[in-house]
Amino acid sequence: MGLSLELGVPLHELGSMPERVLKLYHAYGEQRGFPIRRLELYMAQLTLVVAKTFGGAKNAKLTDFLLDPTRKPPEIDEVKMQLQFSPRKRKNGPR
Fold it and tell me: How many Cβ atoms are within 10 Å of 2's Cβ, its own excluded?
């Protein structure tokens, strides 16, 4: 569901996406992070600086300001299972 929201693609379209494309999106998400997560990290970092500078929060950590500090990218198999993914068979063979 999160990938659908991040990409702006309906969930049923993700389920019919070729496996190669799904793996590319997954690799991108692990390497660079999707925009919503990056914004959350930027806002948490900014809040941490403000809290330490003006609020006196000397022992504050970045995770104190994250919405979900334990969130990790899902494994590709987990994504496939949630989407009920079944690869499409190519008519012209592999490319």
Answer: 15
- CA-based R_g, the chain, Å: 18
Q: Are the beta carbons of 52 and 40 closer than 8 angstroms? A: no
Structure tokens that stand for 31 in this block = 């390497």
All structural domains of the chain with their residue ranges: 2-83
Question: Among candidates 64, 82, 68, which has minimal Cα distance to 14?
Answer: 82
Model pLDDT for residues 63-91, shown as the tens digit of each residue: 888 887 676 655 667 666 666 667 666 66
- Find all residues with CB under 8 Å of 44, minimum gap 6, and list them: 62, 65, 66
87 CB contacts (<8 Å, ≥6 apart)? 18, 19
Q: What is the pLDDT of residue 62?
A: 84
Separation between Cα atoms, residue 86 and residue 15, nearest integer Å: 7
| pTM (whole model) above 0.85 | no
